[in-house]
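Example record used in the benchmark description.
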Amino acid sequence: MFDSISFTELITILLIALVVFGPQRLPELARKAGTWAREIRKTAAEFRRGLDQEVSDLKKPFEEVKADLDKAREDLKAAGNEVKKSVEWVGPPPVIGPSPAEALPDKPTDQPGAPEEIE
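Model output (structure tokens):
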């Protein structure tokens, strides 16, 4: 609170207050200032507690959604691992019919209607 006020400035303010209000009223004013400061701190603390409560109330739905998303992510990972294990267990699919190398003719002349080679 007193970070921006130096010691000499504080003494100057106290001396001016002593001159303006007098030595009889100064202790009474100091008590009132202390009471006001206490009330301001109490009000600020209540305000902060209220804000913290509101923020925590707002965070709860987001935390629940995050927990649901994390659970769904874990479930998807587990399902993906199960599918991967199933595919590995079954093995590669069987080849039906000729291989691609066997399906292609050796020479283009083997096919009907193909142009003949010129020697």
